[in-house]
Amino acid sequence: MTDEVVRYSEADLAEFKEIILKKIEKAQNDLELIKSAYMNDLNNGTDDTSPTFKAFEEGSETMSKEANSQLAIRQEKFIRDLRNALFRVENKTYGVCKVTGKLISKERLKLVPHATMSIEAKNMQR
């Protein structure tokens, strides 16, 4: 009986680790931009405009802050998912589908490095 090794090689894991680290760095920079936009309380010069326009401006600002808040939450989740992927690289379980136990394709992992399921498993969910 042959025990098939179902994991990526050390070289592959090193390559994925590099991809993940770059993605984490970019995602953290993006999160800082989102947070700075969210925290921006600069007055947009609506003090001298009519009350109607000021109300529109304030409503728009509120919607913007809500949208930025949602973006920040999504970005934080993305960073957490990437860090979990890094943990899986370290313990050599990275790239193994949590449903089928088969290797997730390299192409998929390069595009979605935090993936935990193969395309096959994702399609089974539908």
UniProtKB/TrEMBL annotation:
Organism of derivation = Flavobacterium piscinae
Which InterPro entries does the UniProt entry name for this protein? Answer: Znf_DskA_TraR
User: What GO molecular-function term can you cite, just one?
Assistant: zinc ion binding
Record keywords: Metal-binding, Zinc, Zinc-finger
The entry's protein name is TraR/DksA family transcriptional regulator
Q: Which domain of life is it from?
A: Bacteria
Q: Carries keyword Zinc-finger? A: yes
User: Does the record bear Zinc-finger in its keywords?
Assistant: yes
Q: Tell me which PROSITE patterns the record gives.
A: ZF_DKSA_2
User: Domain Zinc finger DksA/TraR C4-type: where?
Assistant: 93-122
Q: Where are the zinc fingers (dksA C4-type)?
A: 97-121
